[in-house]
Amino acid sequence: MRDHIKILGILNIVWASISIVMGLIVLLVFGGMAGFLSVTGATYNDNGGILVAPFMAILGVIIVAVICIVSLPALIGGIGLVKYKSWSRPLMIVISVLHLLSVPIGTALGVYGLWVLFHADAKRLFDQNATLYFPPQPPPPTVVQNP
User: Fold this and answer.
1) Which terminus of the chain has fewer CB atoms gathered within 10 Å of its CB, N or C?
2) Domain limits at 15?
3) Cα maximum dimension of the chain
4) pLDDT exceeding 90 applies to what percent of the chain?
5) What predicted TM-score, i.e. pTM, was given to this entire model?
6) Mean pLDDT of the region 80-90
7) pLDDT by residue (tens digit) across 100-113?
């Protein structure tokens, strides 16, 4: 099960990285279109291009922000899975459910993630790692006073 958890973490890191890169490409395209519209609008005295250019740039920034807000938790959770952190299991369960909405690759990743994370061995592994990082503390010493 350790291998499945590590594979799931790597797949989420790759999927989130691809999404972020695609978001940056969208920003580049929208920024380029905004620049092109503002230059051609100023050159040909067309106010339509100058008026639309800021909206194109803002739309590109909004799209990138949404993509990053959706992709960063998957990236962080994937890194946590690779390092077998106990907090990454519940985070990745939620992200795997959200991946189900992204057809077809996200759906496959979500189903695989839910299968791996709800497996009894995975639960035991993450519970074991939590106790390794946070061992039970001994009780404080009691002081006995002599009368």
Assistant:
1) C
2) 2-129
3) 101
4) 44
5) 0.76
6) 91
7) 998 898 899 999 99
Q: How far apart are CA 97 and CA 105, in angstroms?
A: 13
Number of domains in the chain: 1
Residue 47 CA to residue 28 CA, distance in Å, equals 23
Is residue 139 in some structural domain?
no
- The answer as to whether 147 is a domain residue is no
* C-alpha dist (Å) from residue 55 to 33, 48, 87: 11, 11, 40
